[in-house]
Task: inverse folding
């Protein structure tokens, strides 16, 4: 597991925490980006959700792309079947103050299931922060993350600099799904989530005072 935050940076990011708790919890949508048969994503997702649920002021929704079936062919007049699939995910994205995308790396990039979710939505992404957790082999999914950043920039989404990545992820978790040595991973997640919290509160407050794009 690596993150692009040094130990010194992890300490300094504690200053990003808000001075007071928000009046209402910040809603975070965790997007499990893989729908591949035999995927490793749920193991990393369980670890990630445990980290988020320990963070004060966050409420969590999960958007698991193995549980929805959005087509890659977009339409301005989707069929009732597609509308039903959108109904599983769109309300969660719209209600979110922030996102965490959990992505593997397939052929140096991210899954088609994740691109379909992104492209079926627009306003739901705007003026919200988004953090990344990635996993894979030697690269730990970081190439998928770097491909996703310009996609979300086009949608006016604020991506968090610090990421959490699991290199050779299968070797890091025990058979029961627990992380074998979670100290470094937990610290990296805290750094990313603290930054996500700061941006989520800042952007929500700004939009309450002045709607984005108005």
Result:
């Amino acid at each position: 597991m690596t993150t692009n935050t040094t130990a010194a940076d992890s300490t300094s990011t504690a200053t990003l925490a808000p001075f007071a708790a928000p009046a209402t919890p910040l809603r975070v949508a965790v997007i499990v980006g893989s729908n591949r048969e035999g995927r490793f994503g749920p193991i990393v997702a369980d670890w990630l959700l445990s980290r988020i649920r320990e963070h004060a002021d966050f409420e969590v929704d999960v958007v698991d792309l193995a549980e929805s079936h959005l087509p890659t062919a977009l339409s301005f007049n989707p069929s009732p079947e597609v509308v039903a699939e959108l109904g599983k995910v769109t309300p969660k994205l719209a209600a979110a103050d922030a996102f965490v995308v959990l992505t593997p790396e397939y052929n140096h990039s991210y899954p088609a299931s994740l691109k379909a979710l992104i492209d079926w939505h627009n306003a739901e992404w705007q003026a919200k922060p988004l953090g990344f957790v990635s996993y894979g082999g030697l690269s730990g999914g970081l190439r998928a993350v770097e491909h996703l950043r310009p996609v979300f920039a086009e949608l006016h989404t604020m991506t968090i600099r610090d990421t959490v990545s699991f290199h050779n992820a299968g070797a890091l978790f025990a058979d029961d799904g627990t992380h074998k040595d979670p100290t470094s991973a937990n610290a990296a997640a805290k750094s990313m989530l603290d930054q996500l919290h700061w941006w989520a509160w800042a952007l929500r407050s700004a939009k309450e005072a002045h709607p984005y794009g108005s």
Remarks:
- The CA atoms of residues 51 and 178 lie 13 Å apart.
